[in-house]
Amino acid sequence: MSGEPLVILLVEDNPDHAELVKRNLEDFKVANTIYHVEDGEAALIYLRECGTYTSKSKFIRPDLILLDLRLPRIDGLEVLKQIKNDSSLQSIPVVILTTSDAERDMAMAYEYHANSYVTKPVDFDNLAFLLKDLGYYWLAWNKRPW
Amino acid sequence: MKYLQYLTSVHSIHRIVLITICSILIDEIFSTWLLHFLPPMQWLSEAVLDALMLLVTITPTIYLLVLRPLTHFVVKIEEEKNKLQKSELRYSQSEQMLNIVLDNFPGSVFWKDKELKYLGCNRPFAKLAGFDHSSEIIGKTEFDLRWDAVEAEKFRAADVEVMNSGKEKLHFVESMVNKNESVLWFEKSKIPLRDADGTTIGLLGVSLDITERIKGEEELRETNDYLQNLFQYANAPIITWDPSLVITRFNNAFVELSGYPAGEVVGKNIEMLFAKDKVRSSMALINEAISGERWKTVEIEIQQKDGGARTVLWNSANILSKDGSTVVSTIAQGHDITDRKKAEMALQESNELLSSLMKHSPVYIFVKEVSPVESSVLNVSQNFHEVTGVPVPKMVGKTMRELFPAEFAEKIIADDWNSFSKGTVLRVEEELNGRFYSTIKFPFIQGGRNILGGFTIDITEERKALVYAEETLKKLQESENELRQKNTELEQFTYTVSHDLKSPLITIKGYSGGLLRDLSNGRHDRFDSDLRRIAVAADKMTLLLENLLELSRIGRIVNPPSEISLNELTHDVLSLLSGPIAKCNATIIVQPDLPVVTADRTRLHEVLQNLVENALKFTCGRPEPRIEIGMRRNGSVEPIFFVRDNGKGIDPRYHETIFGLFNKLDVSSDGTGIGLALVRRIIDVHGGRTWVESEGIDHGATFCFTLQSNNHL
After folding, report:
1. Which of B46, B251, B383, B475 is deepest in the core (most CB within 10 A)?
2. Does the ipTM surpass 0.85?
3. Of B458, B488, B503, which residue sits at a domain end?
């Protein structure tokens, strides 16, 4: 995927937080295309659409999903669960972005097979670094509950 | 004549004897005649003739003297001759008489000559010997008679014995087979017949038929044996003793009873049969009984040889002497009632135990006779009056309908028969006069009667305790549920706080960091917007904190409930919101007859305000916005209050989500998302429920709530 812009689906209800993520990605010149949705329902709609019409759709299948847990309509854990239960989507890496480091959230996130869990505010230097080498991202940034 | 008379009166008349005696009599007459007359010539010997001739020749005087008297004698002889003729006649008559006598003699008489040939017999003997007439027997021997050779020889042997010994054989008993094969018994006497010289000339036999007597004796012996056996082998112990209390007889049953062989007892004093300490009382009983003619039945304890004791029911009779004046013996018969006595004792003990049980039982016990239509009391424990209020003696025989209230009685009767007819143990709980009872009923048949037994315990206290326990448990469960709910709420609160309160802080931190980087990079174009973001985030934080505080207050501070007219309250709320309503140009419809409810006025105001504000928020800007405030019942007891709008509507998937703290369906909409959470919280505190009804997007929404039923009556 190097050379091509990284397609990221950002699921974040707080516009300020979304802006922070976008800015950081820009600042560090990560070649990216960010699709931003504000709630869980919208995220699932996006993912289902891109899954169905990969090439023709306006929705492009993301290379990475940055998923906030606290979301309107359908919360992040439910979104994560549906992604990981959907055979066409489960291969997309999901990084949980959350304001809370509550154990319950972390435990649930891993139970639903989140690929990583990041507590906000994100250390964007590190995020950028990892984004450059996505394949090793979780090994370095994983913040597992154990 | 004197002889004749004598002879006819002689015990054993034998014709030959008579004849002999008669001959002797004739001889005497002849001798007398000789004394008076010269004997005829032919009767005199030569010497005597010579002497007589001498006398005649020599002494004519004497002759004369003798002749005259002789003439006289001749006359006399004639007279005597006549006399003799008369006597012979009489003799002939007496012979006839003799035959008559012999023939009627109640015994058989025969006589034989020396050769043991029969010379004659009387009619009974002739018949016995098989002849029609006595004369037929003359000249016969024993072997010519009816009996067989063996018998004949037996008879002959006896004859020979008498003949040889010359001694009479008197009163010996012999049997003989009769013509009809029956055995006859005779008492016989055989006497040798002697002539005047004492020479044995024959045999006289006399037999008396004693068959009847023998039979009698046999019967008597049999009876005796029978009685002896009866005595000996009777099942009942029998004992006899003499007037000096010495035991005379002791039967087998008594041996068995006492363990003493008869030999160890007979001849001993009867006292040996009693235990030492009971001799006096036993003897007293015996003496008392003996003094009367017949014992009354008394119980006596017999001590066994091995020391054991048997209780015996005794009766006895005295055996009196012939004249009835003295007791010669006492016979006693016992009946061993030891086992019966033991059984009686056991039964009595068992009965006493049962009575005691019935008397002391703290459990109510009853025994009833049951039928499909009625049950009646056979027995109840003494404490049963506590249940019925009726003294126990008066309860016996009473029916259920007589003892209990009608409905209760019917139930008992039905239960009783149910248990009995199915043959199963029945456990029931019953309530009577405010007390609770637990009863176990069980059926059985006794003496052909349908019986139901049962035990009842008063479980009122336990019941109270149980009810209390149940209530306590219910309360505990309620508190637990409440606690769990509180816990969940707390978790939710923590979660919300950790996410939503941190969110503005992240914004502030993120943008302040960005500002610092921009400053160092000399980039100024986003200072304004970033600082504004920081300020808005701070404000948001403040608002969130205020909301949280308010929410937490709802759970802790409850204003005292008051009576509130919902129409008035609605009016207040609408007045407060008149500005936004006017701005939206919304139509507000209020049901005019809303009830008066009891609630926390301030909180209920908050509920209505939030719901109306919410409705305004999602109807504003849409065509003909309309909001209805009303009440419906939907067939339920509790009234349902509602705020209905024709606004945006809510996807059914999110009907529950929207009540969550800080949950918003649209990021862009105003507010923190506390409104519905507050509504739910307030209604919860009032014991009511909250929900939303909406068919989906663009179908409007109806927010409903109830209040605890006693709050609006």
Report:
1. B251
2. no
3. B458
